[in-house]
Amino acid sequence: MEIFSSSPGFFAWVVLPLLIFFARICDVSMGTLRVIFISRGFKKIAPLVGFFEVIIWLLAIGQVMQNIGNVASYIAYGGGFAAGTYVGMAVEERLSLGNVIIRVITQRDEAPLVQALRGMDLGVTTMDASGSRGPVKVLLVVSRRHDLQRVLSCIQEYQPGAFFTIEEVKTVREGIFPNRQGSLRINWRDPQGFFRKGK
């Protein structure tokens, strides 16, 4: 504290911009996660994240307004926004929240792939369809994002070069899914318990 009081320039041009920068990283990354939580159906977590997001933002913008002539504060504010966006996306990618549906379209024998996916405790729905080059098989698989890479590796192994799409799924009810590993007891198919019996 003695260093800051004896050198106000150091605080104004170094310490304060760093504080604003890191505050912006926190609130923007939380804002990114809040939007993702809303889109994935985590209705109870999103407001809590939003509360802390706004508090941190108010602290950051308050310091900028109090030091309106400090150019370094503006640079730190903008830099923190950019860095916070990246951090929020990286954190969300690591969390792998939500569910996805993988749609595979192939002209080859789908039986080995179906058997492999079902061996991973995943439900697979197959349909006959017609493509531009003749009859095709359509496979539908719902998986949590955490297991997506395993599913894609399985597709590449048994159906290399097959056409597939991946789409976000907000809510999943019933079906066949692998048991979730770990001690966190959250129903990843219905995190808010919307489909609980008796509601």
Could you characterize what this model shows?
The chain has 199 residues and is α+β, with helices and mostly antiparallel strands. It folds into two domains: 2-95; 99-169, Alpha-Beta Plaits, CATH 3.30.70.120. The chain is 53% helix and 17% strand. The protein has six helices and four strands, in the order ααααβαββαβ. The chain has helices at 2-6, 8-40, 45-66, 71-95, 111-119, 148-158; strands spanning 99-106, 124-131, 134-144, 163-169. Strand 2 and strand 3 (134-144) form a beta hairpin. The termini are far apart.
What's the domain count?
A: 2
Broad structural category: alpha+beta
Number of contiguous helices: 6
H/E series, N to C? HHHHEHEEHE
Strand order of the largest sheet: 2-3-1-4
Helix proportion range: 40-55%
Total beta-strand segments: 4
Low-confidence stretches: 1-5, 182-199
Name the beta content range. Answer: 15-25%
Radius of gyration: 24 Å
Q: Report the average pLDDT across residues.
A: 83
Q: Which outline best applies?
A: elongated
Most strands sheet: 4 strands, antiparallel
Q: Separation of termini?
A: 56 Å
